[in-house]
Amino acid sequence: MSNFSSIDISSTGLFAQRVRLDTIANNIANVNTTRTDSGGPYRRQEVVFRAHSGTFAQNNAGVEVESVVESNEPPKQVHDPSHPDAGPDGIVRMPNVNVVQEMVDMITATRAYEANVQAINAARTMASKALDIGRV
After folding, report:
1. How many domains would you assign to the chain?
2. Which residues span the domain enclosing 71?
């Protein structure tokens, strides 16, 4: 990391929230996917974050994406005998994606992203002001 620790820390947050937003978009895009390569319906994905083990003073603090995991919630079951993936009982196993929950997650991820952008802008402004003081 550079000597601008606060900017570096916020940039890790930007990256982590971008991954989260991409994952949410993927979940929404697959809300009706009943058949995947692995068999069965699409399973909702969730991003797992992990704090860097260092500290601010060590110049390696921040957050990182540990993994993207599949949710262990069971698939939704919908009765639709006309669906091509319906079983003999007319039940279709649908993805365990709740669009309302995904939209709430998208809003919180967007706000976290924006907060990191504001923190970077504030650090940049403070550094600029410090340079201006040095010129006087």
Report:
1. 1
2. 5-135
